[in-house]
Amino acid sequence: LLAQIALERNDLAAAGAHAEACLRLTPPTNNALLGEALLLAAQVRLAAGQAVAARVLLTQAAAALPANLEAGARGRLAAREAGLWLRLGDLPAAERAFRPAQQPGAAEPPFRVAQETFALARLHLARRQCAPALAVLQPALAAAAADGRLAHQAEALALMALATHACGDTPAALAALAA
């Protein structure tokens, strides 16, 4: 958690130190915790511009995450992993990380699957599939607005603007950003 907070504050030195401490303190037998710690360390390395190190850590995280992890937790971690692979420009790895079986389910409340929904939209955008991205984002935006989740509304609107632009309607994309 401390590494994530430091990363959000753009304190890469502190984030790196906390991520390394997290890796040292994580029992090697706890694959779920180890996988999450490796994802966090990869995120910090990527933010620091260390793409090669981030790739190595992502590969280790993918190997560490157990297949029998609770579905909600697995989906959230897969969404994080896919997002990191997309930032590295590796669409096939992102698709492997976020397989269709891990896509958001209707049984979960919208606030629990927001990151998975956004990861799915980003995958559609990376594939240049604007209509499916918009189809995923519109209900996510409505749910976020209904629940008053401003950060999720902002993220959904930004992704919708990207998708609208990808569909060729730049004026509508700019209007969405102004809203």
Give a short overview.
With 179 residues, this protein is mainly alpha-helical. Helices cover 74% and strands 0% of the residues.
- Describe the main β-sheet briefly: none
Secondary-structure element string: HHHHHHHHHH
Radius of gyration: 17 Å
Task: Enumerate how many helices there are, as a single number.
Answer: 10
What spatial form do the alpha-carbon principal axes imply?
A: globular
Overall helicity: over 70%
Content of β-strand: under 5%
Q: Distance between the terminal alpha carbons, to the nearest Å? A: 33 Å
pLDDT below 50 for ≥5 consecutive residues: which ranges? Answer: none
Task: Give the tally of β-strands.
Answer: 0
Structural class: mainly alpha
- Quote the average pLDDT: 87
